[in-house]
Amino acid sequence: MKREAVITGAGIISSAGACAGETWQSLKEGRDGLRPFSLFPSAKYSGMPSGQLPADLSALSGLTAGSRPDHLAVAAARQAFSQSFPEGRAPDPARAGVLLGACVGGMADSEVFLERLLRDGKQDTGLLHFHECASSADAVAGTLGLFGPCETVSTACSSGSNAICLAADLILSGEADIMLAGGTDSLSRLTVNGFGSLLLIDPQGCRPFDEGRKGMSLGEGAAVLTLESAGSAARRNARVLARLSGWAATCDAHHATAPSPDGEGIQRAIRRALDAAGLAPRDIHYINAHGTATPDNDRAEAAAIRAVFGEEMPPVSSIKRMFGHTFAAAGAIEAVACLLALQNQALPPNAGLGRPDPACPVKIQKDFAARALSNVMSLSLGFGGNNNCLILSAAQP
Amino acid sequence: MNTGIYILNAGLVSPAGNSPELVLAAAPAAPVLLEFPGQRAALKTAGFRCDLSEARALLGPMKLRRLGRLQIMSLLAAKKAGLSLNALSGDTGVYMGTGLGSLGETEAFLENMILKGEELPKPASFINSVHNAAASSLALEYSCKGENITVAHREISFDAALGHAMSALGNGRVERALVCGADELNYYHILAGEEKGLWKTGAAPGPPAGGNSRGVCPGEGAAVFLLSAGEPGVPAGALVPGGRALVPASRAIARVLGARTARYRHDARSYIDPAAAADFLCGLLDRCGVKPAETGLLLSGADGDSALDAVYRRVAAQLELRAGRPVPHGGYKQLCGEYKSASGFGFALAALMLRAGAVPPGMRFAGEPPAGPVKTILSYTISRAGVHSACLLKSL
Fold first, then answer.
1. What ipTM was assigned to the predicted interfaces of this complex?
2. Are A331 and A183 within 8 A, CB to CB?
3. Taking the CB of residue A14, how many other CB atoms lie within 10 A of it?
4. Is the pLDDT at B237 greater than 80, yes or no?
5. What's the rounded Cα separation, in Å, for the pair B246 and B2?
6. Of all helices (H) and strands (E), which one includes residue B225?
7. In terms of DSSP bridges, do strands A316-317 and A286-288 run parallel, antiparallel, or are they unpaired?
8. What is the tens place of the pLDDT at every residue in A118-137?
9. CB 3.0-4.6 Å disulfide test: which of A10, A356, B77, B343 passes with B13?
């Protein structure tokens, strides 16, 4: 029996927009969402193109306190929740839960704690209050009054997608009827300096699948989907936006950071997701690639797509030029982008592309275009060889 | 077909010892004043630290140089579990629970950045600092190519990871599952905790019998389990429809019946309503087809803090009401200290206890210990932050 969950709400906050409508407009225009980095002083990274958001995010969430990811997660979750439940509450809060991907947590404040301690010998432990990754899921559940499962997944850049898969699994196993699932992350000195130390940042801004690409651009944001069982949505007469019809996660077990060059693990994730959805490769009409614009990532991902789909592959685009790479939020943001593509029957463009890299033999969708779409695929890859594939399908099969 | 989920291997790195024999025989020891190499100020806190001296021989000097403490602890626990590349390569998923991840590597990267500036970073420490670094190291070591999930949600991290592993096995998404719980002691974490008044000073905790002091004793540990779908009496290599091989359950340590997590209605003073907690536990029992009266032992995450330990005792009393008979209530954190994924240690102790058919001498009870061999153990963990979790194990 096919296992699928339905999507009845979506929320998204990023440098591309503060809601789904603004985000779709940015996608239509292929708008470069990167702006000069200035979130904290940095001799080395100030001014680099990044998907940075305003310093004060409290107005977005309504929270009186919290980490940056907490504010972003609550803001996105409120959007999804209000779309699914205009009346303002879930039918049975004990059967409704939250599962978010998060990597950085409150690190931006924890770094300030450590700096003050090392430089001045002073401990400001209040800065550590929201340190844990779990803080964001707890904030969402607390704000919305949900008492089902409440968990956080942290698998680097595949966190958001993994959270969506595991949330769907909790619904289908009967642990919950409704799950708010997605990802949230913010910029921090750890991640900016960390990826910079690995020489993975392109100082000119990311150019996914471009022949001259030199690396990522970093970003921050959050996206949340409301997932339900088909039965739950039917009982409420809820409007189904799309179906999460298939998903799969694998591990390369190849290297701590780099994907296997032939994308073997990505291929397995794609094939398993297709099997789970009961679909053939030809049934996929668009692929949203992870497409970080590092030389290794794009090459491996393209190899995997080519191996599975062959010559008859669907159009592929990476949208990271419009958002930056938002780590744990990336998979969730891209799932929402796929949802919007399905709803609007159009293909998001691969912004930042000059000359396609011939070593990445995929059909890059350079421009925004109207297209009939029934099934779309989103790929997310993470440090540690994590691979995740989501398939979203039109609300009506 | 009576297919269930079975624990085939268990490995521990714990303050109580790094082998099942040591852990089962361990008596609660006094916590030791914590010291860290290169620490800037002396700590006042005593805690429970693991002995990693075997790591050089079992993992090799290269790994010790390249990897962080959490990764080393996890790999060492896997070695102690007797896992082999042959047994695990391919369709094995890794499901890790860690509340705080690789604190040591995060500290190393940030400290270096703050003191030496941005031009001389430590990229290896950044790679090791991600929460899923330990799960990735396990996958690399044993070529595990199935799902690779790390749950980082406070004190329920291990039980949540266990639940996802069980679902993956039950649905056939993976053929085997490595389930792990690990957290490490860290200087800045202890220092900040001193400032916040989190830690006990003085004597070791005696949960769950109810001391009268606040605070906990910090600890650390790594627990690794190999889980598989199994069936009692099936010959080795037997296949079920679909071609998936089952493992003879007779090889197993114990059977895992279920795991569950949820948020609870939180009260800052009394944490959780005991009746609601008992409802949560009975919900798990019911789903696993176990009556409350069949609960042989409640193993709680009582951590020596008088306020939370009192909550656990009230929950245990509510469970007894539903069972209609006394349910022994034991604790384990006097052996390992308090850390976010400590329920993994509790899970190991429960599994070993079920296999041995005897109560470990180091276990402490609020009330009477079990009168005889225990056949079903319900493990329950409350996080002060508003979530709780439970898992249920049964003897073979």
1. 0.98
2. yes
3. 28
4. no
5. 11
6. strand B221-231
7. parallel
8. 999 999 999 999 999 999 99
9. B77
